[in-house]
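[agent] plan:
  1. take the single chain provided in the ticket
  2. run structure prediction with default settings
  3. attach structure tokens to the ticket
  4. add a short note for the reviewer (M.T.)
[agent] executing step 1
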Amino acid sequence: MSVPVQPPKQQIRAVYGDTTVTVYQAYSPVIGLPAARDGRFPAAWKRERMTWIKPSFLWMMYRCGWGLKEGQEVVLAVEISREGFEWALRNAALSHYVRGFHPDRAGWQRELKRAPARVQWDPERDLHLRALDHRSLQLGLAGEASRRYADEWTTGIRDVTPLAHEIHALVRERRLAEAERLLPAERPYPVPDGLLDRVLPIRTEVKTEVRTEGTTSRAS
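[agent] step 2 finished; step 3 output follows
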């Protein structure tokens, strides 16, 4: 019997083609419905605010409760240019300080303040929306990145709320194989050299001394 291959701890997985990548957001009907109808974000969508995009469909379902949370009733699949997506990643800062990866906390704070985008690696979710061991990308866009996302990078917007509700119904009925077949076919995103250098911490083991009565041992 073959053993399932575990994904890397932190990895971008997405639906993508030669020139575009799909990300997900959820909004109230005031924003979501006209966005899906017109294929662009309406005037009510505030370009000066930070917006978070998620390449993981199931993480979006976790965030919006399958499109049932107030203010997140319309789930959108937003197709954006890979060029814009990668620009944001190259210019992003990690959303939290990591000792040993950043030179110091003050330097990280300066970098975060200047960056037009930020990255979080949050636990991926299964069909029951339970946290998995590996993590998925959440990409926050602010300032220049937010404006370019709305006005330059976005090539299409679809309302996928019915899909979210259909998969959720199958999960509730414990028809998991059928639900899984309906999930968007997300694949590991090809990462050019240097793309994630600023936002993918190298995990290092830190050795600390653990003292017990009469002995000293090492733990990692």
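[agent] step 4 note for reviewer: The chain has a mean pLDDT of 90.
[agent] ticket updated
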